[in-house]
Amino acid sequence: MMRAMKTSIRLGLVLLVAAPFVWAAPNPEAPALDAARLAEIPKQLQRFIDDGTIAGAVTLVARHDKVVELDAIGLADLATQRAQQTDDLFWIASMTKPITATAVLMLQDAGKLNVNDPVEKYLPEFHGQWLIAERGTNSLRLVPPARPITLRDLLTHTSGISDMPPPRIETTLAELVVGYANKPLQFEPGSKWTYSTAGINTLGRIVEVVSGQPFAEFLDERILHPLGMKHTTFWPTPRQARRLATAYAPGPDGKGLAPTDIYFIKGGVANRARPPLPGGGLFSTAEDLAKFYQFVLNDGVVGGKRLLSKEAVAQMTSTQTGDLKCGFVDGMSFGLGWGVVRQPQGVTEMLSPGTFGHGGAYGTQGWVDAQHDLIMVLMIQRAKLGNGDASDMRRVFQATALGALKK
After folding, report:
1. How does residue 265 score in pLDDT terms, banded at 50, 70 and 90?
2. C-alpha angle 131-137-142 in degrees, rounded to nearest 5
């Protein structure tokens, strides 16, 4: 593959302008970052462009409230040869989930709900659910579960509820969760971990019921606007869509790259009839996501204003799943809406225990290594990776970023 064009911005220690990062007290003993090693990040990722794995990428590293690396490499669109830009928009898919969890915890801070509450307290359609006790060739034996599912179960992917596709484009969150409620549970609540986008979508509906606001409106008012995440949306405008990175999947016979669909974007236009899915509907930029991660790393404070309690941040970003086997790579656990590295190994071996973050369906990754005050964001649009959390691109990016720490 012809070597793609490269756009690179070396920001040194430049502060984000909109909704600036606020840092409580940088650790004076923390090692500095080696600029030469940071400059290796785009060079190391270029090989994945050269071998046709991806068309382009945006990378960001932030530390002590400053962006220290921001690069765009390759192409945002192969057909037009449009170069990847650092402010390009990406479908972040399941990276939406921690933002939804933040909305839930904000309502807990306000005393309007508790994560230990049963879901049926807010959504009566979940009352009297059944559990699959036995599967036959053409039958199911159903029994009542030992207890009802809770918000905590939804936040930790331990509820047992099943997903279902929206029956029509304009399906509302309210209608969608009724469908979830009427399907039997796959296992006893809290007994195992099974990734559940349906569970996070259900939480978005609870946010609507408790707050009295549409979910997208709540996020705009309480999270996106206060944090200055002006490019983050469920429905990119035509102007924003011009900055949308084209999504690719392997071409015919696995050779090269072929364009593939991006979540309800057709002809560069977002279909606003689709619901704002809390489990995977947002589009964002690397810098917007860094603002969100810095807010969480700063224990819920932005611009000197507290939006989320320190206790809520601790709940979200620490292990809440005990010894359950969790996640898509070994050594993981889950907090409330966040993946948490419990025992670094494999693709996470370079990360500190307690590092938290999340990936998305098209390979996007965002992780916060709090022990090193380090934020790492990788933006790509590559479908059918198999397991984006275990991708070589994630491993190389993280290893290079953490390799920049001076001993």
Report:
1. confident
2. 15
